[in-house]
Amino acid sequence: MAKRVGAAKTGGRKTGTPNKRTVEIAARLEELGCDPIEGMARIAMNPKHTPDLRGRMYAELAQYLYPKRKALAIEPPDNSKGDFTLEELLICYREAGLKREK
User: Fold this and answer.
1) Within a domain: 4
2) Mean pLDDT of the chain
3) What is the pLDDT of residues 73-88, one digit of tens each?
4) Rounded distance, CA 81 to CA 76, Å?
5) Same domain, yes or no: 58 and 24
6) What pLDDT is recorded for position 24?
7) φ, ψ (nearest 5 deg) of residue 22
8) Which domain, by its residues, includes 29?
9) What pLDDT shows up at residue 100?
10) Using CA atoms, how far apart are residues 100 and 74, in angstroms rounded to an integer?
11) CB of 41 closer than 8 Å to CB of 58
């Protein structure tokens, strides 16, 4: 029998409850005294590591604090025929951002 649309969820995990595998991995890391976030932060802040590696660690850490930005499609002005100035492109960018927020 199909569940009716809008019906309450029944069975399974409650929303926000981690699955069994996630709980096992977290417990194992705790046993080892391993904090992956701390490890990435230490790599990112260590000047002995390459700038590429440090940048990847900062990017990885940033996603835990800041939302990922979606790409905006920017169309050049209709009258540009493929040639447009940076100022025209910035105006299009701002307009596209304003349309997306509405």
Assistant:
1) no
2) 82
3) 666 666 666 677 788 7
4) 8
5) yes
6) 93
7) -60, -40
8) 20-62
9) 55
10) 12
11) no
Question: Measured in Å, how far apart are the chain's first and last C-alpha atoms?
Answer: 40
| Residue 93 and residue 74 in contact, taking contact as beta carbons nearer than 8 Å | yes
38 Cβ partners below 8 Å, 6+ apart?
none
Structural domain contains residue 55: yes
Residue 101 has pLDDT above 60, yes or no: no
Q: Which amino acid is at 96?
A: A
The rounded distance, in Å, linking the Cα atoms of 53 and 42 is 12
Structure token pair of residue 7: 């019906």
Contact indicator for 43, 57 with CB cutoff of 8 Å? yes
Report the percentage of the chain scoring pLDDT > 70: 79
* pLDDT at residue 66 greater than cutoff 80: yes
- What is the number of H-type helices and E-type strands within the chain? 4, 0
Structure confidence at residue 41 (pLDDT):
95
The amino acid occupying position 65 is: L
CB-based contacts of 41, cutoff 8 Å, min separation 6: 57, 61
